[in-house]
Amino acid sequence: MSQEKETPKTGEAVKEKKKSEKVLLKEEIDKLKSDIEKLEQEKQEIKDHYLRERAELENFKKRTHQERINERKYAAQNVIELLINPLDQLKIVTNMTVDNDLLKNYLIGFKMINDQLFNALEQDGLKEIKALGEVFDPNLHHAIDKVNDKDKPNGTCVQVTQTGYMYKERIIRPAMVKVNEWSDENGNNE
Q1: Residue 170: closest CA among 80, 44, 96, 45
Q2: pTM for this predicted structure
Q3: How far apart (Å, rounded) are the C-alpha atoms in residues 19 and 108?
Q4: Model confidence over 4-24: pLDDT tens digits?
């Protein structure tokens, strides 16, 4: 058996080969590290996207749940809005004074029916907005005129021309009022 001696040329070739293998391995390792970093970034982006989508879904669920609650809570509002004006007219008619006894009896009967209707609506959440003698509130009252009366406090509702109503927490119709407003500054009491 003869052993071949390593010649400098073959030794250098082996070293070069090992060097190139090391360089290739280092490049491969660097490429894999780079791929790992990219995958980690992608994973983080996907996770962030997932969390945002999940939060949006939860918010959507809460919003639709609240909408369903409000729909049930205010389901009768449209019907009440349609009934308010005719009921107000009936109230005005039943509060009229007449001399005829037969007509008085009819009006008493209609007044009882009107009161029963309003009681049923009040049980469902309808409330009359108090305005007469109250301080003017633009959220509840709609000023249609002003009156100059120094005997009454400034900024109070002195006359209600149309009753206002609230259904639960919502205003169906603001009260139409005349507001007392006066001033001593210009001498004209205006």
Answers
A1: 80
A2: 0.64
A3: 113
A4: 555 556 767 777 778 788 888
